[in-house]
Amino acid sequence: YPRDSEIERTVASTWVAGTALGAAVLVLRRTRPLVATVLLVGLSIASLLVAGVLGVLGLCLAVALSGVAATREPRTTWAVTGGVLVVVVGAMWRWQDLGLIEILAWAGSVPSPLWEPQQFLAQPNFSPGRRMGSVLLLVVLVLLGVAVGSATRSRRLHVQELVERYRALARERDQSAALARAAERAHIAREMHDVVAHNVSVMVALADGADAAFERAPDRARDAVRQVARTGRAALGDMQRVLGALGPAATDPVPGGGDQPQDPAEVGLATVVERFGATGLAVTATGLDTPLPQDTAVRLAVLRILGEALTNVLRHAPGAPSVEVAVRRTPTAVEVDVLDAGGARPGDGPGSGRGVLGMRERAALLGGTVDAGPRPGGGWRVHAVLPWADDDGGA
Fold first, then answer.
1. Are 26 and 143 found together in one domain?
2. Least confident residue range of 11-15, 42-46, 102-106
3. 10 Å Cβ neighbour count for 57?
4. C-alpha angle 39/43/49, rounded to 5°?
5. Is 337 helix (H, G, I), strand (E, B) or coil?
6. Total domains present in the chain
7. Going along the chain, which residue ranges are E strands?
């Protein structure tokens, strides 16, 4: 173009205006990339139509399309990219008169023989080869922008996936902790029920017996009171052990109990039966010397189920003429039978109603069963079967 001509001033002003407006539009790239792309396409067509130059708007288009690729699905990204290239390349082929080489030569950055001055827009001197070079440069810039945006989107999705996976793991951890707490509460509830129901029932029966024998047989009444004290200390020790996980204070010794109470799993079958026999129950027992499995869970379940069954007899059929207890150990299971000849049924006397349910839950945890129901000839029967692995000789 002739120096200081009108067309030269038009090209320069269009270049500057396009650069400023393109930079301003790119502010929308992060929040509204599609809007920014449409505006830049319009600016590109206007710049080509007015001055025959695309200028920095080609680079701005590439940046805007990178924003589209970073926030939209690949199908949308490539549809928008294809539309932009068709429209802008068509406008370049129709109206562009200054490519990169011409602009650099005009600015004095390349030797002047590479640049042929033109007097008018759209003169044939701007050859198809040079147009093709400008088009290829635009395509490369656009594809580079799309690649950068796609990589950004993939990285963001990967981070989101990691965050979501972490949150899922955190939810699973919280759920597992909640289940563990619920299981622990259920365990504590079962143990507390057994401790309170067994020992307090025995203590009440002993206290009633002591009161009845106080005038006639003071020695027997005194023995009963002592048995009440021993049973109470044992109950406190059991409660201390059950609640031991709730705080360090629960590990304090039982007042008046001397040494720490014996672990419930180490109490013998005979001890459990004798404790209830002291209340006046006519208990006949067989198999009390049966060696129980070394598995603490199985041993404790046998003792708790036996104690619960006898507690139910004491609570619901205190006047039963006979109570039969039988413990058997087979190669695969331990069986406990408690039969009474009383006429009452569980539910006739006071109680929480959870005794049989608690026995069944405790047995189910070990894969065992508990059947409880009336006997054909009257009375009640509790039959428990607890499986165990034959990996020890018992104790």
1. yes
2. 102-106
3. 27
4. 145
5. strand
6. 2
7. 283-286, 323-329, 333-340, 369-374, 380-387
Nearest to 57, CA basis, from 48, 66, 49? 48
The span from the CA of 41 to the CA of 261, in Å, is 87
pLDDT at site 143: 93
Instruction: Specify the pairing of strand 380-387 against strand 369-374.
Output: antiparallel
Q: How many CB atoms lie within 10 A of CB 231?
A: 22
Indicate if 23 and 144 belong to the same structural domain: yes
Give bridge partners of residue 283 from the DSSP assignment: 323
Residue with tokens 């705080």: 247
* This prediction's pTM: 0.46
Q: How confident is the model at residue 133 (pLDDT cuts 50, 70, 90)?
A: confident
Residues 23 and 155 in one domain: yes
- Which tokens is 133 given? 């070079």
Q: Is residue 188 part of a domain?
A: no
Burial class (CB in 10 A: 0-12, 13-18, 19+), 148: middle
Pick from 291, 229, 234, 304: nearest CA to 265: 304
Nearest to 210 by CA among 199, 228, 224: 224
Q: What percent of the chain has pLDDT over 70?
A: 73
- Residue for token digits 């990996």? 391
In a domain, residue 331? The reply is: yes
**pLDDT score recorded for residue 46:** 83
CA distances from 332 to 38, 65, 366 (A): 79, 73, 13
What is the pLDDT averaged over residues 181-192? 71
* Residue that the structure tokens 């007042």 belong to: 255
Q: Quick one: 168 and 279 in the same domain? A: no
User: Which residues are registered as beta bridge partners of 337?
Assistant: 326, 383
- Residues facing residue 327 across a β-bridge: 336
Whether residue 141 is found in the same domain as residue 284: no
Give the pLDDT band of residue 276 (cuts 50, 70, 90).
confident
One domain, residues 305 and 160? no
Q: Return all residues near 69 (Cβ < 8 A) that are at least 6 apart.
A: 77, 81, 145, 146, 147, 148, 149, 150, 152, 153
Domain hosting 381: range is: 269-395
Instruction: Give the residue-averaged pLDDT of 148-153.
Output: 93
